[in-house]
Amino acid sequence: MVRFAGRLLRLVVVGFLVGTVASAIAAAAARRRLVSIGGPDDDHVELVAIFGSLDFRSVARSFRGGSLLSWFAGSQLDLRRATPDAAGADLEVKTIFAATNVVVPEEWHVRVEGPAVFGANTALTGTEPAPGAPELRVRAVTVFGGTSVSARPWDLAASGKTVVIGPVGTEAAPVPVAAAPVPVAAAPVPVTAEPVAVAAEVAAEPVAAEPAPGTGTAEPMPAEAETVVAADAAATPTPEAAPDLPQLGRPRRRRRAAATTAADTAPDAAPGTNPDGTRPASGG
After folding, report:
1. Residue 173 has what pLDDT?
2. Distance separating alpha carbons of residues 169 and 151, to the nearest angstrom
3. How confident is the model at residue 235 (pLDDT cuts 50, 70, 90)?
4. Any residues with CB less than 8 A from the CB of 29 and at least 6 apart, and which?
5. Contacts of 18 (CB under 8 A, 6+ apart)
6. What is the C-alpha separation between 57 and 44, in angstroms, rounded?
7. According to the model, what pLDDT value does residue 56 have?
8. Alpha-carbon distances of 39 from 68, 137, 164, rounded to whole Å
9. How far apart are CA 48 and CA 69, in angstroms?
10. CA proximity to 74, closest of 56, 86, 92
11. What is the per-residue pLDDT across 112-152, written as a single tens digit (0 to 9) for each?
């Protein structure tokens, strides 16, 4: 039993390798002769993705269906902008060593059927469609891969190696709304009454009289100015005379010096007279 299981496993591995190589050769040959037919506006399309990624975005007004082949590739068919035909749409999907995603609106009614060998076929629309909703019938054949029908797209364009066919984006671009400018109020300049008060003080201050040109005499001062000057003079304290202080020193020397000075400065007496200038009395 163990030997049988081992041989079976080896057979499967060898068959997988042989099948992969054979499939790659066949894909390379088919790539030269199979091409996509149809554009975003066409109601019927035949899409081919071999050894590459394809992101097809339909905007058909009456989409009837078509076919999609993914072989050693990743492909996506976006139908969110498409309008299905009144009788519904039929789509045939073949996925071989690849992955395929069909994007539809959530309100569509989707039905997926077909075999899957070492792979899976899934329908993930997310919500229960309403009665009378558009119908999409998918016939999927999957070998070593996966096929899905969902309402969420794949970001294949981010890889940079994906061929994008159709309009970019699924919704209208929002209109930019410019932000309203914030009004900036100018700060009020504070006006103080100080200059006015200073001007009033300067106006009230008396101006000293100046001599009239050519006369050398001063012009008479106003009565208010004379009153201010008189008040200032009355308020000014008068310095008191310093008291006489006793002279210290040597009084005798000063008296002698004074006597000597008086004797030196007295005039000489006339001959025949007394020192004080009188004549002597004669006898008899």
Report:
1. 39
2. 14
3. low
4. none
5. none
6. 13
7. 94
8. 13, 21, 11
9. 5
10. 56
11. 999 999 999 998 766 677 777 889 999 999 999 999 999 88
What does the block give as tokens for 177?
């709304």
For residue 2, give Cα distances in angstroms to 5, 6, 8, 12: 5, 6, 10, 15
Structure tokens at 144: 């070593």
Q: What are phi and psi of 190, to 5 degrees?
A: -65, 130
For residue 53, which of 106, 3, 100 has the smallest C-alpha distance? Answer: 100
50 vs 205: CA distance, rounded Å: 105
For residue 109, report the phi and psi dihedrals to the nearest 5 degrees. Answer: -95, 120
pLDDT tens-digit profile of 167-214? 875 444 333 444 445 555 555 555 554 554 544 554 555 555 555 555
- Whether residue 16 has pLDDT greater than 90: no
**β-pairing, 162-165 with 99-103?**
unpaired
Q: How many residues does the chain have?
A: 284
pTM attached to this predicted model: 0.55
Residues 6+ apart with CB under 8 A from 219: 209, 210, 211, 212
| Strands in 16-119 per DSSP E | 44-50, 53-57, 65-71, 74-78, 89-96, 99-103, 109-113, 116-117
